[in-house]
Design brief:
With 448 residues, the chain is an alpha/beta fold. The protein has 17 helices and 17 strands. Helix 1 crosses helix 2, helix 6 runs parallel beside helix 7 and helix 11 packs parallel to helix 12.
Length: 448
């Protein structure tokens, strides 16, 4: 049973050092009890206390790892209902479905799209995470052959789907070391599938007729020693599946009901045959509150908006995406190339660098640490002002790369030009455009 804030407080060092991010140990204990903090944030807690606090510090929704190596992904670990309360922890995984009833050419095409569709946005690689391999024939040898073919064609994580435990075992036989998600333990198969998962140290999904049956299945697996569980409520209508997602998340977080404290898997692929409607349903589950969504196929026009939506939702609202400060060479700049400066807010950097690249004018871009704030916000916060900009330029090493002494600053920080000239004697401070889209035209008029 979870400990109260006062019980947790009694086990903490009571130093009120503030290193955990809050001023007192009592405040930290209350946050820990509410699932709004992690025990690892306290640097001085004893090992004995850690053991006693394990239950209180564990996320209400258990984090589950599916797959191994660089392509493994985590789901679960969530502590809040709404992103603004703290943050969402592990992004919804997207999986593409293949079955042993499909022609080999269709299977190959879907796996190829899974492998190839990767997008880069604000410095992040966005893509789908898993291939769900399903037995529709019920024939063990046929399923095993398909699993092995898919496993050899992709390094992505795998989800093995079969109604019969013996078919699931056949598919798992050659790839157990990749730790696929086994789908699914039902009321009729929970003992056999649970044993298969435990013996091979693989995560397992449960599928119930409703939320109540799901809770019974997770408790049965827990008693059998299986801890890594994913939940499918069994709903295949949009309304019921959506309702179930909210019930499962709310019951786990607000009621601390452990049998539902696991990530979920949803199947937009089984809710419609319209690809665009399927993408719309998937987008709903990305925000409310699926750990995994299984798609019938991966098309660029559906996948790209989904992964961007996911990135936006699972970005920490208290910690902006930031680019590493430094000198970025765009094109092949020479000692006569333009020098521009901007902040390290990722979106700002990628807009500015993209426009410079589009201008075909090789340039140096100085990216200054403003704690991930945009130009206007950083300027208003006193983090992108003349004295700090001057210090950064001096320390950056740009003076050794160019013969001229001309620096282009963003138009929104034009008021800093005079102060910057005082900070950088001998430099000419040039006020560039306010909008990134105007950078190419501005650079084409560049003269040293």
């Amino acid at each position: 049973m979870a400990l109260t804030g006062i019980q947790i407080f009694k086990l903490l060092p009571k130093t009120n050092c503030g290193k955990c991010g809050v001023p007192t140990c009592l405040a930290f204990a209350m946050n820990l009890a509410a699932g709004k903090a992690e025990l690892s944030a306290c640097p001085t807690v004893s090992e004995e206390a850690k053991a006693q606090l394990a239950e209180a510090s564990a996320p209400p929704i258990r984090p589950i790892t599916i797959g191994t190596g660089t392509t493994a992904f985590k789901v679960g670990g969530e502590t809040v209902m709404f992103r603004h309360e703290k943050r969402f922890e592990n992004p919804t995984a997207i999986a593409v479905l293949v079955t042993d009833a499909m022609p080999d050419s269709d299977v190959a095409a879907r796996v190829d799209r899974f492998n190839q569709y990767t997008y880069e946005r604000v410095g992040l690689k966005l893509r789908a995470q898993a291939v769900a391999v399903k037995s529709e024939s019920g024939v063990a040898t046929k399923f095993e052959a398909l699993v092995n073919r898919v496993a050899s064609a992709t390094g992505g994580a795998l989800i093995l789907m079969a109604d019969k435990p013996e078919v699931l075992a056949a598919g798992l036989k050659g790839i157990a070391e990749r730790k696929p998600l086994l789908y699914a333990a039902t009321k009729a198969t929970v003992d056999a599938v649970g044993k298969l998962a435990k013996d091979n140290n693989c995560p397992v999904a449960v599928k119930g007729a409703n939320v109540e049956e799901v809770a019974e299945l997770t408790q049965a697996l827990e008693k059998a020693g299986v801890k890594d569980i994913v939940i499918d409520s069994g709903a295949r209508t949009v309304k019921q599946a959506f309702t179930d997602q909210i019930i499962i998340r709310g019951t786990a977080l607000q009621k601390k009901f452990r049998p539902l404290g696991y990530p979920t898997i949803t199947f937009p692929a089984e809710m419609t045959k319209n690809p665009l409607k399927e993408a719309l349903i998937a987008s709903m589950f990305v925000s409310k509150y699926a750990g995994i969504v299984v798609m019938s196929d991966i098309a660029g026009e559906a996948l790209f908006p989904l992964v961007v939506e996911r990135m936006n939702i699972f970005t920490d609202p208290q910690r902006p995406l930031a680019t590493t400060p430094g000198i970025y060479e765009i094109g092949t700049p020479s000692d006569a190339s333009p020098v521009l400066i901007t902040t390290n807010f990722s979106l700002t950097y990628f807009i500015v660098s993209g426009e410079i690249e589009g201008s075909k004018i090789p340039s140096y871009l100085l990216v200054m640490d403003t704690e991930g704030l945009s130009v206007m916000t950083a300027w208003a916060a006193g983090k992108f002002v003349a004295d700090l900009m001057g210090q950064f330029v001096k320390k950056s090493g740009i003076e050794g790369k160019v013969k001229h002494r001309k620096l282009i600053i963003p138009g929104y920080s034009a008021s800093e030009s005079g102060g910057l000239e005082e900070e950088l004697p001998g430099w000419e401070i040039m006020v560039g455009p306010r909008e990134g889209s105007h950078i190419p035209a501005y650079l084409k008029s560049w003269k040293t």
